[in-house]
Design a protein that fits this description.
Number of helices: 2
Radius of gyration: 49 Å
Strand content: under 5%
Distance between the termini: 131 Å
Structural class: mainly alpha
Largest sheet: none
């Protein structure tokens, strides 16, 4: 186990030495280059944000106008449908009222006939006695 630990320490030692050597090779930006790059990036971000904002406004306006036109088209159709439904409802209501009247008259007629039949049966029974 001791040999493994020694090898691991050597690997770590080499790793850090290599890391330090690579860092020395890096060309770091000067403060002026850093400021220029930062300004360029912030400018690009603002330009893209502005483009997205303008497109959002355009699409929102288009969407509102399209919905308004769509509502104008749909409302007359709904009004025609409502008028047709009201006419149909009135006709159906009248038909139902007439059907109820006919049903009531038929029931009264049947009740009257049953009463007459019952009276006739009672009279026949009395006559037979």
């Amino acid at each position: 186990m001791a040999k493994k630990e020694v090898k691991s320490n050597k690997k770590n030692k080499y790793f850090f030495k290599d890391f330090k050597a690579e860092i020395k090779k890096v060309i770091w930006p000067t403060p002026k280059q850093l400021v220029n790059s930062t300004v360029a990036i912030i400018t690009m971000v603002l330009v893209v944000a502005l483009i997205v904002f303008v497109l959002d406004l355009v699409f929102e306006t288009f969407n509102e106008q399209a919905l308004t036109k769509l509502q104008e088209v749909v409302q007359p159709v709904e009004e025609q449908t409502n008028t047709t439904n009201e006419t149909t409802t009135e006709a159906t209501t009248e038909e139902n009222a007439q059907s109820e009247d006919n049903t009531t008259e038929a029931t009264e007629t049947q009740d009257g006939e049953e009463a007459n039949t019952t009276d006739n049966q009672a009279e026949e029974a009395e006559a037979n006695e």
